[in-house]
Design a protein that fits this description.
269 residues, alpha+beta, Rossmann fold, three-stranded antiparallel β-sheet, two-stranded parallel sheet, 12% strand
């Protein structure tokens, strides 16, 4: 009712302003068309239909909003779980992103290589110290260092025996490093080199190889030295004659006899 009264008041005010501005009173009749009761009823019904349609639309929207709200409430715990999972995974995602960055420019690979090199350096240096009677080790650049003087030895200044010991230490260091990383090297093959060692270094080198054999690895050695044959359980003797070369496995007695000989004609002489 208040709204209708306000509307009527507004229409009367507008009509008064129009009447005030008209110079010809006879023209006033042209400004208004008297409304009949039927016209008023039709206008009210039209307004009512419009209001009813608006109300119905509002009801539909309210219903849809309630459904969406209920759905959101039902899904809220799940979204909270997802949010918690994302927050928990964030450190992992950040770490993977950093790893990707490092892998992209090679820094990670370089880091792994340096780490492995440090491990090899530590193992090989200790092995070289043991087999050389405490005389040699490795510098960070894998150069041989004289532990008695602290001086780096150039490659050209190393004797054949010293070079052999350094190579043996690096080879055994790689075997040890592979074992620590979960890998395995099952066989070692050495060709000569023992003849350049003195008695003490030879004993240390053979002892190091013996430890590898005790660990279940196959250690194969080619040598002319009787002392090497004495330290090896299974000896394959290779001899030479006019028709070529012959090879046969030696028994324990034959091996001992070979070691006691002052000279021989095979590879183990």
């Amino acid at each position: 009712a208040t709204s209708f009264a306000d509307g009527a008041t507004e229409r009367l005010s507008r009509a008064w302003r129009l009447l005030r501005d008209v110079d010809d009173p006879e023209a006033i009749g042209d400004l208004f068309t008297p409304a009949t009761p039927d016209d008023l009823e039709a206008s009210v019904e039209a307004s009512a239909r419009t209001l009813e349609a608006s109300l119905q639309e509002a009801r539909f929207r309210h219903r849809d909003a309630c459904r969406e709200l209920e759905t959101a409430r039902e899904q809220l715990p799940r979204w909270q779980e997802i949010g918690d999972a994302l927050a928990e995974a964030r450190p992992v995602v950040d770490a993977l992103g950093e790893l990707t960055r490092l892998l992209a420019d090679g820094k990670f690979v370089g880091h792994v290589v340096r780490h492995q090199q440090r491990g090899l350096l530590a193992i090989a240096s200790e092995l070289l110290r043991q087999t050389s009677g405490g005389r040699f080790g490795f510098a960070e650049t894998f150069e041989v260092v004289d532990l008695l003087t602290g001086q780096v030895r150039g490659v050209k200044t190393l004797s054949g025996g010293e070079t052999f010991l350094a190579s043996l230490a690096l080879a055994l260091g790689l075997v040890e490093l592979a074992g620590r990383a979960g890998g395995r090297l099952d066989a070692l093959f050495l060709d000569e080199g023992f003849g350049s060692l003195d008695a003490n270094c030879l004993a240390e080198a053979l002892d190091a190889l013996g430890r590898q054999a005790s660990a279940g690895r196959l250690v194969a050695v080619i040598s002319h030295l009787h002392a090497v044959a004495e330290a090896i359980d299974d000896v394959l003797l290779v001899t030479r004659d006019a028709s070529g070369s012959r090879a046969r496995w030696l028994g324990g007695a034959e091996r001992d006899a070979l070691v006691l000989e002052d000279a021989g004609s095979g590879l183990l002489v």
